[in-house]
Amino acid sequence: MGTRFDKLGAVIAAIAAYACLVAPFTTFRANRIVPGEARSMLESLPLTAGWTLMAIVTAAALIALLRTPLMLRLGASLTALVALAVLIGVAGSFLTPQDNTYARVSPAHGFWLLVFAFTLLLADVLTRLALSPWARMLTLAGAATCFGLLLASGSWDSLSILREYASRADSFRTEGARHLTLALGSLAAAVIVGLPLGILCHRVDALQASVLNVLNIIQTIPSIALFGLLIAPLGWIAVHVPGAAALGIRGIGTAPAFLALFLYSLLPVVANTVVGLAGVPRAANDAARGMGMTGRQRLFRVELPLALPVILTGIRIVLVQNIGLATIAALIGGGGFGVFVFQGIGQMAMDLVLLGALPTVALAFAAAIVLDAIVELTSIRKSGVPS
Questions:
Q1: pLDDT above 70 for 250
Q2: Which of 302, 229, 305, 219 is nearest to 266 (CA)?
Q3: Which distant-in-sequence residues (6+ apart) come within 8 Å of 385 by Cβ?
């Protein structure tokens, strides 16, 4: 009988049962400061909506528990996630007294556990379906579109996190732009410097060990410590180098955050460039040399194209890493979504923390999916290159 049950589905069903029957679905607070009151799923929703969601979650959990067809599991996970997304907005409107601008309704850990459980089921199904890179990117685009439409519909406006956003919309856009500038800008700088440095390390063995050792040491320094170490030298440069302050170089702010992210980014870019070039088949180089190609032509027409999947893997690591580390930049005035995270911690306002944390997680997740797909596409092209 045990063989009829799915092992991952058993975990998902257990999480769903705990989230529905034990954990609170929402938290109600009379204002953003006072402690919250936990509400169960049935207390958080109108009677019909509450029992409907309970039935959907129960059915989806049973489908996950049993060894059911993949398409049925896909439909169950999507139905459960859509129901949760729509009805958490209904819960916000239902629990908020009419014309009350102070009350706050937040998803509690029961809601987040259900989202986690059925996202896990969805990810498992998509992995088993072995979607092509283009299909994965289209799936991501579709999910982003649905999420955007849900936000635009206003159905979540009564939730606390959207109320926090409404009062900080301009600041959110500004800090979001700074966050992307830090993450993408430091990545671009690392590629511009790290790619030629990796090529040089591949060509000169004596240089390779020393460069990689230095970059490894930088990588082991904790992020906050590195931000702090850069304050003094950049502050000195701002005071003593003419024009440095006008360019934005100073002890605190964007400059030390950008430089720290750039330094953290160098090791994956340089190391993966070295590994990628070292993995180019000797036969491919010999064939190119036999065709009369110069060293430069071999580098750009043979070696770099064949090493590209490995190099892109390093770039993927850097981008996901930098999106997360850019959050810490707020501690030294670098801006980004970390501004809301640390403001929320200081004010004990968890919804403000989520306002900064959720976009960061979403950006990192999307970047990982897109770059994984690009790496796979380049690997497919590489396999078609004659050696």
A1: no
A2: 219
A3: 284, 305, 306
State the burial class of residue 357 (Cβ atoms within 10 Å of its Cβ: 0-12, 13-18, 19+): middle
If we measure between CA atoms, which residue out of 29, 12, 34, 30 comes closest to residue 107?
29
What's the sign of the alpha-carbon dihedral 274, 133, 326, 254?
positive
Nearby residues of 25 by Cβ (< 8 Å), 6 or more positions away: 19, 39, 40, 41, 43, 44, 45, 91, 107, 108, 110, 111
Residue 248's region, left for phi above 0, alpha for psi from -120 to 50, else beta, is left
Q: Mean pLDDT over all residues of the chain?
A: 87
Using alpha carbons, list the distances in angstroms from residue 339 to 201, 227, 291, 331, 333.
38, 16, 57, 8, 8
How many Cα atoms within 13 Å fall on the side-chain side of residue 360? 25
Q: Report the pLDDT averaged over residues 192-209.
A: 90
**For residues 139 and 374, what is the distance between their CA atoms, to the nearest angstrom?**
15
Say if CB 234 and CB 162 are below 8 A apart. Answer: no
List the structure tokens of 48: 């019909």
**In the structure encoding, which two tokens stand for residue 212, read together?**
């990689």
For residue 384, pLDDT beyond 70: no
User: Do residues 137 and 370 touch, judged by C-beta distance below 8 A?
Assistant: yes
For residue range 76-86, what is the model confidence (pLDDT) as tens digits? Answer: 999 999 999 99
CB count within 10 Å of CB 219 equals 16
Q: Quick check: 32 and 160 in contact, CB under 8 A?
A: yes
- The pTM assigned to this predicted structure is 0.84
Report the run of H or E that residue 358 belongs to, with start and end: helix 350-383
